[in-house]
Write a structure and sequence with these properties.
Layout lengths: L1 H9 L19 E10 L5 E5 L3 H18 L4 E5 L7 E6 L11 E5 L3 E6 L2 H14 L16 E9 L5 E7 L7 H13 L4 E5 L1 E2 L2 E2 L8 H4 L3 E2 L21 E2 L4 H13 L3 E8 L4 H6 L29 H17 L4 E5 L6 H5 L1 H9 L5 H18 L3 E5 L12 E4 L4 H8 L4 E3 L2 H4 L21 H5 L10 H4 L2 E6 L9 H20 L7 H18 L11 E7 L4 E7 L6 E5 L16 E3 L3 E9 L2 E2 L4 E5 L8 E4 L31 E4 L4 E21 L10 E7 L9 E4 L10 E21 L17 E9 L1
Parallel strand pairs: 2-3, 2-4, 4-6, 8-9, 8-19, 9-14, 14-15, 15-16, 16-17, 17-18, 18-19
Antiparallel strand pairs: 1-7, 5-6, 5-7, 10-11, 12-13, 20-21, 21-23, 22-24, 24-25, 24-26, 27-29, 28-33, 29-32, 29-33, 30-31, 30-32
Helix pairs in contact: 2-3, 4-6, 4-16
Bound molecules: acetamide and zinc ion.
């Protein structure tokens, strides 16, 4: 009803007024720019309905920020409905309305601003819109002089698409101080998001004070110092070595953060991991393990992660219930997250107590034992008036009756749960893992892997088309996760999260019809100005240049298009391997490349290079564009770009997941290249990759044989590997076999996989990977 009135108002728009820029993110549901503006100055009054503390809190929040940035203290006055007061009016609508809990109406003309909503949540979201209508300096923590605090004339009707719009922060892998947690909450608030998922416990540190179990903060919160080593290559703690790295939040600090979030109309969702990702608990309370012994709080990742709480021991549940009693007291939100992910069952299989529990409970297997475990914890939480949420592994062995599922291994777990009538929060790794790379890994700080660009995040739709309308109602919304294995400082956490949070906010708030990538990538530059004022270390990954390559086999040339996430950027490039500068040619049309070339390209704004140049090496050789037959196909997870991968002229990068490498698990590739006609061959060079930490090893040797007719092959020539399997790092190695101008049309290449990981390796006896790319024929 109110929406219809709004539309009627919208149609009375006046003509011929100059418009101030409006760049609201997330884009509102409907907005009309009316021209003109309201100026906030020392005369402006804040008019809030009398006797309503919630409204006053929102009005005070607005006035506080305005004062910080402008130095102006806005006077308050009582607003009585029916009056046509001048100033900034905050009011609640009397009747429940299509606006819902978080929607708001905002009208700005030259006499007043009226912000109205059904609840204070809606008013708070509306305040974020007013901030975004003001100059970016409104986000300043110090007074900015000579700013006209003009709010453009608009009429806005706005409400979110999804009720759950979350951001997660892992404070276990690396501990983040209270001040940063608050800043992170401020970022969530400015994006009109409403859930802060606080990942408080994991193998690398327990982060919350629990009075009943003091050793959790004395022991489980600390690990030995391995700050100088890469997270995935740390040395194990030595016996007796002092644990000095870590930290935790006291109960008072937790209360302070919960209150800080509440003031921003954000719910804090605490996560207490079980039954896996809990070895830090065992370091303090080894009696809760299956096998006993000594446990350390690990200073990095070790894999596989077998240690787990014993499901057959009643003490485990006494512990969990004792912890949850105190957690429930601290967090007023409706949900408690119990983790549930990646619980390896090896220990349970070998444990008498766990096996006895399976038997007496008539359970089929360890998956059912996990389900029984989680269901028991759910009952405990439900009895305390809380709902339980867990990662999608809690589906395995049967979902607890009331559980909500957070789907991280893709959308499938969420789909399955929604079909069973359970609520779901979508958080698939493909779109929502902000620990992934966001631009070319060659130029980015080390990340855990993956590739989740701004555009990918923007394309996130939490509601899969497979769901019926009825099932889709169970999709509460979406959330991004910031795991901190490779994120050790607040500045780096900002770098990984802030730009992508802006894209996620719009994907979760704005109606699908309003999502527009071109509009968004123009508006995000205004968001970057706000971040500049706030001193947020945002990623400029959207300024990176990408290469879109097409090879024309007939003409033997590449057509190269340079693309970016920026709208209409100024790209300068070089073709000689040097870095581009402002005087290098400007990219305006497809580049045609017909010889071995290094392309370097970067975006310039106001004469300044915005992000490190992107570089692409194109290699021309005799096999370019040839047909390739495979004896064994690559693993489906690492297919490269298909059957042209080895002869496409494009070399794989140091990131083996860049989509350019072909991976073989345990298998030895065996390919036959057809050059199309007989040619003189002087050498065949294949490129391989080694990274033992990822179970990828160079081949033992390669064998190359030549044939003129494809039937009779000359005896093979070989090249043997000389690099040790335990050599650290990401190794790209060329294996070259020479010939004396031998005539051939067919080339057969076999590369011998080492087969299994060596005895000293974490994965000893497991299948070894072999990664191969370009086979250069000269
Ligand atoms: C997860 O990423 N293990 C939930
Ligand atoms: Zn056990």
């Amino acid at each position: 009803m109110l929406f219809l009135i709004m539309l009627a108002m919208i149609s009375c728009k006046e003509e011929n007024k100059t418009l101030l820029p409006v760049n609201i993110i997330p884009a509102p549901l409907s907005m009309v720019e009316e021209g003109g503006f309201y100026q906030i100055n020392a005369e402006t009054k804040i008019l809030a309905e009398a006797g309503n503390a919630e409204i006053k809190n929102v009005a005070d929040y607005f006035a506080d920020q305005f004062k910080r940035a402008s130095g102006i203290v806005l006077q308050s006055d009582e607003f009585k409905d029916g009056e046509s007061g001048k100033g900034i009016i905050f009011k609640l609508l009397k009747t429940a309305d299509s606006l819902g809990k978080e929607g708001y109406l905002l009208t700005v003309d030259k006499k007043k601003i009226i912000l109205s909503a059904v609840t204070a949540d809606g008013l708070f979201r509306g305040v974020q819109t007013i901030f975004q209508l003001l100059p970016p300096e409104i986000y300043s923590e110090t007074v900015k002089e000579n700013i006209q605090w003009n709010v453009p004339g608009v009429k806005i009707y706005d409400k979110p698409r999804y009720a759950w719009r979350g951001m997660h922060l892992d404070v276990s892998r690396h501990f983040f101080p209270k001040e940063f947690v608050k800043r992170y909450i401020d970022l969530i608030a400015m994006h009109k998001m409403n859930v802060f998922h606080w990942h408080l416990t994991d193998d690398n540190g327990w982060r919350i004070q629990i009075d009943k179990y003091p050793k959790l903060t004395e022991i489980s919160a600390w690990h030995v110092d391995r700050e100088h080593q890469p997270w995935d290559q740390v040395d194990k703690p030595k016996p007796g070595e002092k644990a000095t790295i870590g930290g935790f939040y006291t109960k008072d600090e937790v209360r302070e953060i919960v209150a800080y979030a509440a003031q921003r109309h954000i719910t804090v969702l605490p996560e207490i991991e079980m039954p896996g990702h809990s070895s830090e608990v065992l370091a303090a309370y080894p009696e809760l393990s299956c096998k006993g012994g000594t446990f350390y709080v690990e200073p990095g990742t070790y894999w596989p992660n077998l240690d787990i709480l014993c499901a057959g021991n009643d003490q485990t549940f006494e512990f969990i219930e004792g912890v949850l009693d105190e957690v429930v007291e601290l967090f007023p939100g409706p949900y408690i997250h119990i983790g549930g992910d990646e619980a390896d069952k090896t220990r349970w299989i070998a444990c008498k107590k766990c096996q006895s529990r399976i038997k007496t409970g008539n359970m089929k297997d360890e998956a059912e034992l996990q389900s029984w475990f989680i269901t028991r914890v759910e009952k405990y939480l439900n009895d305390k008036g809380k709902r339980m949420i867990g990662w999608d592994e809690i589906l395995e062995g049967g979902l607890a009756p009331e559980a909500t599922v957070m789907s991280w291994r893709g959308f499938e777990g969420g789909i399955e749960a929604a079909r069973m009538g359970h609520d779901v929060v979508m958080s698939p790794g493909t779109h929502c893992y902000f620990d992934h790379y966001q631009a070319n890994p060659d130029f980015e700080p080390r990340a855990i892997g993956g590739f989740t660009t701004l555009k990918k995040v923007y394309s996130f739709d939490p509601t899969p088309t497979e769901l019926t309308a009825e099932e889709a109602k169970h999709v509460l919304g979406g959330q991004a996760n910031l795991w901190s294995e490779f994120i050790s400082t607040p500045k780096h956490a900002e770098y990984m999260s802030s730009s992508r949070m802006t894209a996620l906010a719009e994907a979760l708030w704005s109606p699908k019809e309003n999502l527009n990538w071109d509009s968004f990538r123009q508006r995000i530059n205004e968001q970057f100005k706000r971040y500049d004022v706030m001193g947020v270390n945002y990623s400029k990954g959207s300024f990176a240049v990408n290469f879109d390559l097409k090879f024309d086999n007939q003409k033997q040339e590449f057509a190269v298009n340079l693309t970016t996430e920026q709208l209409n950027p100024e790209i300068h490039f070089t073709l000689d391997g040097t870095a581009p500068s402002i005087t290098s040619p400007v990219y305006s049309a497809t580049l045609v490349i017909n010889k071995t070339t290094t392309i370097s390209a970067a975006i310039f704004v106001n004469g300044e290079m915005k992000e490190a140049p992107s570089v692409k090496n194109l290699v021309f050789h005799q096999a370019l564009g040839s047909k390739v037959k495979y004896g064994v196909m690559p693993d489906s997870r690492y297919p490269g770009i298909g059957e042209s991968t080895l002869v496409d002229g494009i070399k794989g990068s140091e990131n083996h997941t860049d989509g350019l490498w072909q991976g073989f698990e345990g298998d030895s590739p065996d390919v036959e290249i057809d050059l199309g006609s007989i040619k003189n061959i002087s050498s065949v060079t294949a490129t391989f990759y080694q990274r033992w930490k990822s179970w990828i090893f160079l081949p033992e040797k390669i064998e190359v044989s030549l044939s003129e007719d494809g039937k009779t092959f000359a005896p093979p020539r070989s090249y043997k590997n000389t690099i040790p399997a335990n050599q650290d790092g990401r190794i790209i190695e060329e294996f070259k076999v020479n010939f004396q101008n031998q005539k051939a049309q067919f080339i057969r290449l076999k590369a011998k996989n080492t087969g299994v990981c060596p005895p000293w390796h974490d994965g000893a006896g497991g299948k070894a990977w072999l990664f191969v790319d370009e086979v250069v024929v000269e």
